Amino acid sequence: MVVPVVRFIGWMGCWALLCMALVALIRSRVVAILLLLLWPLVGERLLGVLLGYLPGMDGVGDWLPFAAGRAMLTDVSAFAGDDRSFAQALVGSHLSTPAATVLFFAYTAALTAAGFRAYTRRDAKGS
Questions:
Q1: Taking 60 as the threshold, does the pLDDT of residue 127 lie above it?
Q2: Is the distance from CB of 18 to CB of 108 less than 8 angstroms?
Q3: 3-state SS, one letter per residue, for the chain
Q4: Dist CA 75 CA 96 (whole Å)
Q5: How many whole angstroms separate alpha carbon 99 and alpha carbon 9?
Q6: Confidence category of residue 105, pLDDT binned at 50, 70, 90
């Protein structure tokens, strides 16, 4: 019971960092929030489908950032039979929960580092 709660708290912390990093990179809070709302729901799923049509790119959709985030939150191996395939379809990634957790944290760290660099190069010079 403790491990899913810790994963969820980590996921929420990542979202806070992603929001701040995107605002620093884009310099628009509205665009950053719209991007964070629309990309996981629509953009990433469409990109995963489109990449699936390219030769050799079948499982790339599993490795996209928010697919990893969804897989991080749901331990699909805990489901049995038909419930497992249904949960897998909702999650949209075949990554294991530990691999998805590491991947989502890595994406968050990379975007946060880019946002920090953009902020320190552009906005923090006057301080």
A1: no
A2: yes
A3: CHHHHHHHHHHHHHHHHHHHHHHHHHCCHHHHHHHHHHHHHHHHHHHHHHHHCCCCCCCHHHHCHHHHHHHHHCCHHHCCHHHHHHHHHHHCCCCCHHHHHHHHHHHHHHHHHHHHHHHHHHCHHHC
A4: 7
A5: 17
A6: very high
Buried b (16+ CB within 10 A) or exposed e, 67-92: bbbbbbbbbbeeeeeeeeeeeeeebb
List the structure tokens of 54: 């390219």
Distances (CA, A) of 24 to 10, 44, 75, 119: 21, 22, 33, 6
Placement of tokens 């946060």 in the chain: 112
How long is the chain?
127
Query: Does the global pTM surpass 0.70?
Result: yes
